[in-house]
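If you are new to this repository, start here. Below is one unmodified record pulled from the training split, so you can see the exact layout before writing a loader.
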Amino acid sequence: MHDAQYDLIIIGGGAAGMTAAVYAARAGLKTTLLESNITGGLVNATYTVENFPSYPSIHGMALMEKMREHVDSLQVRVEEVCDITRLELTEDIKRVYKEDEVLTARAVILATGRAPVSLETPTPCDQVHYCAICDGAAYKGKRVLVVGGGNSAFDESLYLLGMGVEHVTLVEKMPRFFAAQSTQQSLLSHENVEAYTDTQVEDLYVEKGELRAVSLVNSVTGERSRIPVSGIFAFLGQKPNTALFAGQVELTEDGYIKADARMKTSVPGVFGAGDVVDKPYRQIVTAVADGAIAALEAERYMRAKA
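And here is the target side for that same chain:
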């Protein structure tokens, strides 16, 4: 095992992490960006982005590809599918442990984002998904269940119908849907859509590894129904990816990083950015702003320590 030394290590390659990489590189910091999957984060799973300045409408993955091109143009070292085993953040020199390497840096930006909340059912099933763009193509001409009543559930349902899914049943456990009214109207007016509130998934019916049907229960009436579906797409919200550094950086009760307006965490030299930070709004533009601030403050921190 050998050491690799940097000025700044960025953990997480979504919009916040890549923006931080751009600002750090322009500040002359020797920087590496580590991503557990592929760069782009949850934005990759967004079919249409219509609120990012400069692009009236763009596919989320295409937007992230543009951002990655900017990072690469500045020759920042990026490592995807990176398995970090341990972090040591509390000392002046921060250490990031991988299987065959230890990375050290004077500052770290935590931009690890969030992950989808899992659909919990008594019967496990391989046909439960959390990204229509990633996994929807396999269900062309088939019936699917969408779980959730927010914007993501409605947007992804429209995407599934647009790519040829035969029928969508959408269920929300709360008494009403929470998606924007215009989006609700677009989906609920579709002839191949059924939608129910006060309804939860009770269990799945799986035969020879394939999903055949789901059992639904109405939480008000207790009425149960069984509907045939070949796949499930769950959009139940997200939870912060903070397990890697829990106990080192102060977190909220919900597991989000506590950071101030300058993205400083409870540990000197460690900064938060993006959806993993406790804040009222989580949009691509707010993640970009966080990344810029975190990188600028990291550079100022190192300059003060020099």
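Two things worth knowing about this chain: The chain has two domains: 2-115+238-305, 118-234. The domain at 2-115+238-305 is CATH 3.50.50.60 (FAD/NAD(P)-binding domain).
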